Amino acid sequence: MKDVTPAIRAGFLIPLTLCAGLQVLLLFVLGGRGFAWTFHSPLSAATMGAGYCGGLAMLVCSLRLRRWVDVRVAYLSTLLLMILMLLVTLRYAGRTHLGGGDLIAFGNAWGWLIVHLLAPVVGVILLVLQLRAPGQNPPREFPRLWLTVLPIAVVALIGTGVGLFALLFPATAADRWPWPVTELDVSALGVWALVFGVGSILAIREGDPERQRAGAINYLVAGVASVIAFLRYAGEVRWDNSLSWIYLLLMILLSLTGAIGWLMAGPAERWRSAVLTD
């Protein structure tokens, strides 16, 4: 049974954990002040920050796990996030602070771009090296139950659909969004939606609660943080838009799905050995 290599931890998981922590501060706590671009609404910044809250929890959890099968959904989802966010940044580079402006925002914009340029390259190289080792797909320890697959399938369907729509038709998506957004804002939020959708598809493929532990904590933390952000900036919400209420309900259901998934995964008996062997 293949374990996560030290290179995966040191070269990808640890650096991106630190980066996710910085984005949580800038986006979720500070409402986007000093970020790589200026958001139309602080709610967009905080919502994107909620995604990084979930990502941070997922990466911290992944760092404590030993088996590659328990980590690979988190790894692949994070790698996809970095690639898609790089494409969005390059597409709307003129709307970011890469060209100047506030000194802190200017520095963060270039730091953001450099990280998103390096992470996909390093991530793909380390992934290839990890996959060359034997023992990538040990037998599942628990049977696949449709009751556990159904809520994840709903997240996969909605996340993938919303994400693709926001990325392919940003102007239309911005007009219909539950709060004021720019095309850049809605594209970045669409990246997060699509990553949740694809990550959920990968989790269904794994079909084992033990292997879905990191994804479950992501659901739970991101969902709760999204609800907090939504209520914190309730004045920004278009409450006459039915999508606002649907979004709030979906975030609550996402939190509940994550909580149930975390409980189903049970105690993480492999955490201690993962820490001690690093």
Set out the fold topology.
Elements: H1 6-29, H2 42-64, H3 68-91, H4 103-131, H5 146-168, H6 170-176, H7 183-206, H8 213-232, H9 242-265, H10 271-277
Keywords: Membrane, Transmembrane, Transmembrane helix
Name a few traits of the molecule.
0% strand, 278 residues, mainly alpha
Written overview of the protein:
The protein is mainly α and 278 residues long. It has one domain. The protein has ten helices and no strands. It is globular.
* Tally of alpha and pi helices: 10
Give me the strand/helix succession. HHHHHHHHHH
Beta-strand content bin: under 5%
The average pLDDT score comes to 89
Q: In brief, what are we looking at here?
A:
The protein is mainly alpha-helical and 278 residues long. It has 10 helices and no strands. The two termini are 17 Å apart.
